[in-house]
Amino acid sequence: MAIRVLLVDDQPLLRTGFRMILEAEQDIAVVGEAGDGLQALDQVRALQPDVVLMDIRMPRMDGVEATRQITGPERNGPAKVLVLTTFDLDEYVVEALRAGASGFLLKDAPANELVQAIRVVAAGEAMLAPSITRRLLDKYATHLPSGDEPVPDTLHTLTEREVEVLKLVARGLSNAEIAADLFVSETTVKTHVGHVLTKLGLRDRVQAAVYAYESGLVRPGAQ
Questions:
Q1: pTM above 0.85, yes or no
Q2: Considering only CA atoms, which of 82, 36, 79 is closest in space to residue 57?
Q3: Residues 162-176: tens digit of each pLDDT
């Protein structure tokens, strides 16, 4: 079945451009559009999309609050949110990730990256562009703990290797890169990542990366 996508952006021309790109793919169907967060909530309830391509800055209700309501405990469907941000790394993206977004994508990303991001998020994975993720978290480090705070008790449930994997996830490394760094197989890395998410009660790699910073396990700006 085709991946059902809802486009949410207050600029009609951008929505038209995204629609043209996505509808050229046989496995993707654009089921609706919205110009602000409130419309997005209505459309999610009515259309039950698989993926919501969400702008951040919009009138009436911004993308952060809309994401929080779409992915929160009272959610009414399987929709996952892929946030659109600007080249300058929108200051609200960290909040959107905390709110439950499954990843983010630059608005000027090539068409093939947009299509791939939709597929990745629809499959239940997180869309983490390593270099952008690291720059984003470091740039907005003032919104995150300094690393001097006590380590949360939940972190102690992880094994030493799982902590290593979490640190590398926070740096934005892919499974293949983590496998190479730790000299293990990708399958082993996937298993470790799964254990980390389960033990910490996290939904995906995006939340894991933010958790690593918020818990003080990874300090902003550290290598």
A1: no
A2: 36
A3: 999 999 888 777 788
